[in-house]
Amino acid sequence: MPVAADYFHGYSVVGLVALLGLLFVAVAFGAGRLLRPYVPTQEKLLTYECGVDPVGEGWAHTQVRYYVYAFLYVIFAVDAIFLFPWATVYAKAGYGGVTLVEMFIFLGFLAVGILYAWKKGVLEWS
């Protein structure tokens, strides 16, 4: 039974650190709430927009294409994150063929996503 005790000891350390983290955050927020001055006025409750008084509703329409550009950036960032470790493993003896096939499968999935974006006209500047 000593193996089970070691196993649960690892989880108890993680739980203790998580509990201490939550306690630290709660104490910090509580101290901030107790120590800050709170004097609400009509001007303080207005929405702050870079020093300009807010005008109109609060609703603004944004174009979806900006989100698509952000999504494409995330695709390329994930691609880069997976390519660097792959390059280090590929250089080790005995891993060449398997990692090469895995990377071509991964790049194939990315190519399908990029082809879909290209087909939809997302990659064209207007």
UniProtKB/TrEMBL annotation:
Q: Which UniProt keywords apply?
A: Cell membrane, Membrane, NAD, Quinone, Translocase, Transmembrane, Transmembrane helix, Transport
From the record, give the transmembrane residue ranges: 12-35, 66-87, 93-118
Please tell me whether the keyword Transmembrane helix is annotated for this protein: yes
GO MF annotation list: NADH dehydrogenase (quinone) (non-electrogenic) activity; NADH dehydrogenase (ubiquinone) activity; quinone binding
| Annotated GO CC locations | NADH dehydrogenase complex; plasma membrane
Q: Where is the protein found, in the record's own terms?
A: Cell membrane; Membrane
Under which main EC class is this enzyme filed? translocase
Q: What is its main location?
A: membrane
- Origin: domain of life: Bacteria
Supply the InterPro entries for this chain. NAD(P)H_OxRDtase_bac/plastid, NADH_UbQ/plastoQ_OxRdtase_su3, NDAH_ubi_oxred_su3_sf
Query: What EC number(s) are associated with this protein in UniProt?
Result: 7.1.1.-
Per the UniProt entry, the signal peptide is none
* Reaction it catalyzes: a quinone + NADH + 5 H(+)(in) = a quinol + NAD(+) + 4 H(+)(out)
Instruction: Identify its membrane topology class.
Output: Multi-pass membrane protein
The family annotation for this protein states: Belongs to the complex I subunit 3 family.
Summarizing the function annotation, the protein's role is: NDH-1 shuttles electrons from NADH, via FMN and iron-sulfur (Fe-S) centers, to quinones in the respiratory chain. The immediate electron acceptor for the enzyme in this species is believed to be a menaquinone. Couples the redox reaction to proton translocation (for every two electrons transferred, four hydrogen ions are translocated across the cytoplasmic membrane), and thus conserves the redox energy in a proton gradient.
What is the annotated quaternary arrangement, including any partners? NDH-1 is composed of 14 different subunits. Subunits NuoA, H, J, K, L, M, N constitute the membrane sector of the complex.
Protein name stated in the entry: NADH-quinone oxidoreductase subunit A
Which organism does this sequence originate in?
Streptomyces coryli
